[in-house]
Amino acid sequence: MNWIELVGYLGSFLTSITFIPQVYKSWQSKSVGDLSIWMITIVVTSTIVWLVYGFAIESGPVIVANFVVLALTLVLFYFKLTFRKSP
């Protein structure tokens, strides 16, 4: 593993953790009212595209980062569908 791949994995790690605070806050508060369903949809779509790209070029950092971001975003999507306000 060369230094540029290590930089890629560092970037992958940093990108992957960006959604953790939001997922945790949403889970704790059981509230996602301020989250845009469109933003979540765009992030899911873009990470799927990045995953296809990552597998095509066989790039571990791209695959890892986007797999984690996709998983966390799908959790937010699930929260968005289940943490609805009662009428």
Descriptive notes:
The chain has helices at 3-16, 20-29, 37-57, 60-82. With 87 residues, it is mainly alpha-helical. The longest helix is centred in the C-terminal third of the chain and has 23 residues, at 60-82.
Spell out the key features of this protein.
87 residues; mainly alpha
Gist of the model:
By secondary structure, this protein is mostly helical. The protein has four helices and no strands.
| Rg (C-alpha, Å) | 15 Å
Counting DSSP E segments of at least 2 residues, the number of strands comes to: 0
Task: Catalogue the unreliable spans.
Answer: none
| Helix and strand composition category | mainly alpha
Strand-residue proportion: under 5%
Proportion of helical residues: over 70%
Mean pLDDT: 91
- Which term fits the overall shape? elongated
Count of alpha/pi helices: 4
Report the span from N to C terminus.
Answer: 55 Å
Order of helices and strands: HHHH
Q: Largest beta sheet, briefly?
A: none
What's the arrangement of secondary structure elements?
Layout: H1 3-16, H2 20-29, H3 37-57, H4 60-82
Helix pairs in contact: 1-4, 2-4, 3-4
